Amino acid sequence: MVTKKPFGTTKDGLPATAYTITSGRGVSVTVLDYGAALQSVVLPHKGGRVDIVLGYDSVEAYERNDGFLGASIGRFAGRIPDSLLRVGNEVFPVTANDGKNHLHSGKACFGRRFWHADVHTGNTVQFDIVSPCGEEGYPGNVVFRAIYRLAGRELTVTYAGRSDAVTAWNPTNHAYWNLNGHDAGDARSHTLEIPADRYVPVGPDLIPTGGEADVAGTRFDFRRPREIGGEYDHSFVLSGSPIRLWGNRGIGMEVRTTCKAVQVYNAKFLSERNGKGGAQYGPFGAVCLETEGRQTLRNAPVAEENVLAPDLLFYTRTTKFKFLYEEN
Q1: What is the CATH number assigned to the segment(s) 2-324?
Q2: Catalytic residue at 174?
């Protein structure tokens, strides 16, 4: 079942709408037409209900969303070194918005814009947005689509893209997960398992310092489940599935994806702020599992899977989040 309700008005007077999908298992997911954002995931658990995604109570707060909470990121997630986008043999200057680098698609990031919403069947909401050629420096007119589908305990997020020219395409969802509850604070005690033999080392500017490196013998080896502990803002090259995350109160999550990599970010740079219901959010208060293509290296073209060719068909990427918890 999908219900919708007003979600406030932007500073420009535009009304936002929240769409809540509820499954027969008592799970509910709320998504917004502003940013095609994932605003909440509420689970029935041990006689109560637990919201495990950080977010805000109104669109006004999302307009100030410097942390991209729950946002759909496009055209291109992650950092492009020196703001020089290389697609094949061509180079396109793109907007620098993270020092001299380009982060999460620049100032016109889809996470800060309205998407057109359609409700499909009883458990699916689809959002569409168009990005014109030259926006933020990207080539090609691109149609983007974000589809949220909830069935039982599983949320499926599908991103689709279609272009009239060769361009770069690397969408992701930037949900901040805290499986102890969105208001539970520090999430570094979460347990993480990633089927990845290799990761991408980065420098102080979070730009890759070279190619991929072996996780063996390093703090980046999550091939067996262990506590997160430290700070991470790194890409892991997936060699299998699923990714697993567990909190400390009996809630877990399995993540299966068609993407080749996952950016693990445990919110080091999330400044103190008010969230839903007056909750206090801050550094290390969540874990982001940004399923996406492989990282862009300096002076190198974007990875092959991050190239969108001119086509009448949509290219798609799908990630499934299965929630594990004790029934009420």
Answers
A1: 2.70.98.10
A2: yes
- 135, 212, 290, 292: the catalytic one is 290
Which residue shows structure tokens 């420009």?
12
State how far Cα 71 lies from the chain centre: 6
Mean predicted confidence (pLDDT) in 146-167: 97
pTM for this prediction: 0.96
Q: Single out the catalytic residue among 45, 174, 182, 234.
A: 174
Amino acid at 23: S
Annotation says 135 is catalytic: no
pLDDT in tens, 275-285: 999 999 999 99
pLDDT tens string 17-43:
999 999 988 999 999 999 999 999 999
Residue 173 CA from chain centroid, whole number: 2
**CA separation (Å) from 299 to 120, 209, 263?**
43, 11, 21
Contact yes or no for 39/16 (Cβ under 8 A): no
